[in-house]
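2024-03-11 09:14:02 DEBUG pipeline.ingest accepted 1 chain
2024-03-11 09:14:02 DEBUG pipeline.ingest length=140
2024-03-11 09:14:03 DEBUG pipeline.predict start
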Amino acid sequence: MRIRSKPWQRRRGAAAAELALWLPFLGLMFVVAIDFCRVFYASQTIQNCAFAGAMYASGASPSNPAVSPSENPVVKAALAEGVSLNPPLQAEKVTVVTTGGQAQVTVSYDFPMIVRWPGVGGTWTITRSVSMTVMPPPGT
């Protein structure tokens, strides 16, 4: 008479082997998900920076082209919105153009990736632009 072994005793190393096969793929998917979440958060923050700068610029505040980018109050408003970015947003990456009753703020940010992906490299440039109508000065 033949003694039958229990089903779970016959596959003792199967789970370890399957884990060894799936672990690299799962690790890659984890890193991809983390990078995607970081890029999404940074792009939303950059969008908010451009929006805050455009809101400030649309308030009929006179713009002085002779003012350096770090002294421009519109740029300061955009930079204040992006304090959570690491590395921080640079004033030179914020451009403000006010023409024809429209204020346009463009913010660019070089986002450092965790992993260098083929075809993308180590950094990804995120650019967002917001345009708003400039309010007329009070009393007009």
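2024-03-11 09:14:41 DEBUG pipeline.report The chain has three helices and three strands.
2024-03-11 09:14:41 DEBUG pipeline.predict end
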